[in-house]
Fold this protein.
Amino acid sequence: MSRERVVVAMSGGVDSAVAAARCVAAGWEVVGISLRLAPDGAGSCCSLDDFHDARATADRLGFPHYVFDLRDAFARHVVRPFVAEYLAGRTPNPCARCNEHVKLGLLWERARELGATRLATGHYARVGTDPVTGRHCLRAAADATKDQSYFLFMLDQAALARTLFPVGELAKAEVRAAARALGLPVADKPESMGVCFVPDGDVAGFVERAAPDAVRPGPIVDEAGRVLGRHAGVHGFTVGQRRGLRIAADAPRYVRALDAARATVTVAPAARLRAGGLVARETRWVAGTPPPAGTRFGARIRHRHPPVPARLLAAAGDEVRVAFAAGAGPAVTPGQAAVFYDGDRVLGGGWIAGDLA
Amino acid sequence: MRIYLDHNATAPLRPEVREAMGAVLGEPANASSAHREGARARSAVEAARAEVAALLGARPAEIVFTSGATEANNLALRGAVAARPGTTLVVTAIEHASVLETAERLAGTGVRLRVVPVDAEGRVAAAAVAAAADAPGPVLASVGLANGEVGSVAPLAEVAARLAGHEAWLHTDAAQAAGRLPIDVGALGVDLLTLSAHKLGGPPGVGALWVGPRATLVPQATGGPQERGRRAGTENVAAIVGFGVAARLARERLAAEAAHAAALVERLWDGIRRAVPDAVRNGPAAPPRLPNTLSVGFPGCPGESLLVLLDLAGIAVSVGSACAAGAAEPSHVLLAMGRDPDAARSALRLSVGPTTTAAEVDRVVAVLPALVAQVRGGRAA
């Protein structure tokens, strides 16, 4: 009775199943919660099968499991902004938004209503304590190939204090082995990929169905303004993209910019995409305050991309300007997160607004 | 010991039912077979049919056994529409999904559908049903006898009187009413009536449609002579036998069980409102209403969270509507009663039955206020 209660967010997959098992083993009173997010049958996660898998895991491990319907909130915080971002010529990151607002936001509110003192998820990341300041810190997962800290940069001290990532110290193979050893029915369940509410992977089609009146075709031009082709809408493109442009050019061309107001896609040779730096907004720092200007760190500007050596130029309000080390600059994609690392430690991050020359 | 206050979802099997079913399950039982085993099964099915008919004041031959209330509602709506092309369907906004969704599907095939609203207490006005049924050609009106979420009771006899003279059949889903309110098909003036066994303490997976003398339906399951050609398929003999026993017990004990339930529900509500003064009771402020059902909202306290905390405390209740995975959805009944979506999502339904005790109710009253405070505190923190 006196044990502390933890809510474990359960997707129906193996990672959250093992996260729950580790909470049970650690002596927590575990309550498993699955979230109904996408409309029925429309999601590759949170389908009825996933709920049944989560429930079977809970039964096997002997803790209660419930399903909460957060479809409205998911539509408001994740799906509609996702569509709006594509239509505005940006490339959104729905997983990070979902973590912030839904999985680690609203679900935490529910967990607190249920008397829980912690919220655990199956994310691959680690929460640690800074030996000097004693403050909580967010670290990359032990398994670098599975690390999801990029999607969690917005967690502040209060959020880190209440959050458990029980599989963050494990390699994926160890997670599967643990699930098998426990006889969990999801031990060999395949990994979910892509955007969960776009199960067929056709993001452009999803945007068109969601906002058919907002889609505007237009020209594909080079930086001199010469028209090289036509496109069906800027939502079909992402900065840095090469394939699928269907234009005739003497050398490879990449998407350099998307101008939603003019319905224009601008392409350029690869060298022209190398940015000198980036501007990010809605920036959050794990420690609560930005590090001093000039601080050097690694800037990860896409999931699975290695961090690029970079330096903080200025932080004003929640906007930061970051310079890449000379010659290191990658193509910068507005709408993605820029997350700043000191080694495996997340310092903070923000949403990319644009590049710096 | 867990406390089960969700009898409107399914009631525990009555011990007498279990015993009778066990006896049947021990032997082969196809009621259409010519041998002695078949004959025994046939007589068991017909005895059960007589018991189910007796619960309704009906003739046994008018009972069509189905796989449950959902199939019975489908057979009533689809069978009636097929029997009389050009039928206008009239349903109320608070019907069970097996009526509402079936009606909407039929509307999708070109059937004219009219949905009658209800008032803030979940009651439908007979005049409103009659007005909606004022259509050229045949009409099928489907008006649930009692609503399982908020307990409101429809004025069916008055509806029937107002429909007299129209080319209208009146169907009622009595799955939640049976065993809790007296039912007499003659007095109600209906043409079709749906029953479910498992709300009566019978097994799930069996129900019935009573088809009165005025109505003829086109069968929806074909391929056998069972149920006088109205529903093909080998009878689920053990379940039907259990249904029969449950129907007999429900009839014999109706007055006592209804009084027992009503006393417990009032005790529950008195205790809750004393401890949580801003609690809101949904549904009719006064009888007629289902004696065993209490729908209650706690402002600023989502029913979903309260359900989980009660479950963790050993008390099983429900929120108005649930999807296949058990997640709470805004109740269409409460929405139809004019509640906002938050309120429609937050109502807790507590439904008692013959096995519920005063001690159990008192325990719920003792536990609930602290849980409401915990949820509200969690939100405020």
User: Anything to note?
Assistant: The CA atoms of residues 277 and 356 of chain A lie 5 Å apart. The interface with chain B takes residues 31, 34, 36, 40, 48, 51-52, 64, 66-69, 109-110, 112-115 of chain A (CB under 8 Å).
